[in-house]
Amino acid sequence: MRGWLREAAGGLPRQFWFLWTGTLINRLGAFVIIYLAIYLTQGLHFSQSQAGLVLGAYGLGGALGTMAGGVLTDRWGRRPTMLTAQFGTATLMLTLGFAEGFWPLAAGAFLLGIFAEGVRPAFQAMMVDILPDRDRIRAYSLNYWAINLGFAGAAMIAGLAAQFDYLLLFIVDAGTTLITALISLLFLPETRPAAAEGRPATRARSVGAARSTDGSRSADGARSTDGARSTDGARSTDGARSTDGARWGAGARWGAGGRWGAGGRPMGGRRRTPRGPGLGTVFRDRVFVAFLALNFLVVLVVMQHMSTLPIAMTADGLSPATFGWVIAVNGLLIVAGQLFVPKLIEGHDRSRVLALATVIMGAGFGLTAFAGTAAFYAVTVVVWTLGEMLQSPSNSALVAELSPAPLRGRYQGVNSLSWSAGTALAPALGGFVQQHAGSAALWLGCAAVAGLVATGQLISGPSRERRAAELRALERVPATSAAREASATGTGTPTTAAPTGTAMTHEEDVTPPSRSAAVGVPADE
């Protein structure tokens, strides 16, 4: 047992455990979102469609929050973005508990969504920053385990609190969010890589256009260290074009940051901080966007458990407390089995794992069409939870691998956007179908959507794996170049700016990017 625990949790950085602890505390108090649908329909007597619209307003705010959070994470930093979002969430959560009427609640939910979901890109980018590749699936599983341990406890405790006073849900949720913010304030330093801080570096390379020190060609037509040829014929940095049409090379433009001359100064002589490629770069990455589209459809299915499932159960005569115990099965099952999942899926094709996971989730939600008792509902939760357990770690690790280091905040923000957009649409769409076509049509429709997603995972898998391999190769270019320099000059071990195991640009190299390419912008496939 001790050996298994060491293998599952040993060797991870100290900062990860502060993130993990904050996650656990925050999720233990995450009462409001679990019971918001019941609060609106049972406590305030909203219709199913009205409840869905309020939940959708939260999701819409979350979509905007993740976009803003992703940009701020890269430009402002992980830590200040997290702190602003967490303190704002605590304040708005308490305010929402005193709101009355449809429009105040919808507006409050929208603002809450902006701050509550705005923390996600910063949190996820910090996780990627501090974890080496080899530890990511293991760490994501541990974090996912903490989320669901907290979720299980919150579901059961909040069910009892809801029977006493719904306001307690908001007070406890705000309090635990405040504790999480204090952990971030006291124990989490900034982790933003040097390239994301606006320091140009000669050794940064892009997937679309990059020339390495040894003149070999990379996987996309640019120059790299491994001798592979590009698939898109992009030119190298001597007047090269990156994937988003910007021209890179001597005195090149670094994103929107202006033209750089000798000594890292703009051509006009005034020093300016360069900006990397913006959100448009992420949306032009067709491989990543296709993956997010599949995630979006998964969210439409999965988020029914937070909106239409409690309404269906109360319509069958089951109490809010019963819903709490049934949905807690999800968290308890993940707590019991999630740490074994990395070993189970290790060595298996990720696309097939994701496809199988989606089929299992679809089967679980499809079975809900035939449920009518607490026991049957619990069985359906067990089924779709097994799929969720397989899906989560592979999905998180793949998003991390598809995110170039200097653009991690933006990539994580757009990834969170797919979840927030799904969270916004799922309750509104699900509530509409449930009210006008019935619960059975809703659950069978969820099964059909899951089947489509599984097919998409199998079709798009090879292109994702090629992209991930390209980015891994490019992140090794700076370390390889530095090692050659150190060997040639006799200076010893090269200094790198990436203690976490992911190669970054060198902080000490601040000469203008006269021969460097764009930051890690992936080419379209």
From TrEMBL:
UniProt cross-references to PROSITE patterns, sorted A to Z: MFS
Provide the protein name. Answer: Sugar transport protein
Instruction: Give coiled-coil spans as residue ranges.
Output: none
Q: Which domain of life is it from?
A: Bacteria
User: Which InterPro entries does this chain map to?
Assistant: MFS, MFS_dom, MFS_sugar_transport-like, MFS_trans_sf, MFS_Transporters
Q: Which residues form the Major facilitator superfamily (MFS) profile domain?
A: 15-463
Keywords (A to Z) from UniProt: Cell membrane, Membrane, Sugar transport, Transmembrane, Transmembrane helix, Transport
Region labeled Disordered — which residues? 197-273, 477-525
Compartment(s) of residence: Cell membrane
- PANTHER family assigned: MULTIDRUG RESISTANCE PROTEIN MDTH (PTHR23517:SF2), RESISTANCE PROTEIN MDTM, PUTATIVE-RELATED-RELATED (PTHR23517)
Q: How does it sit in the membrane?
A: Multi-pass membrane protein
Where do the TM regions start and end?
16-40, 52-72, 92-116, 137-160, 166-188, 287-303, 323-341, 353-386, 440-459
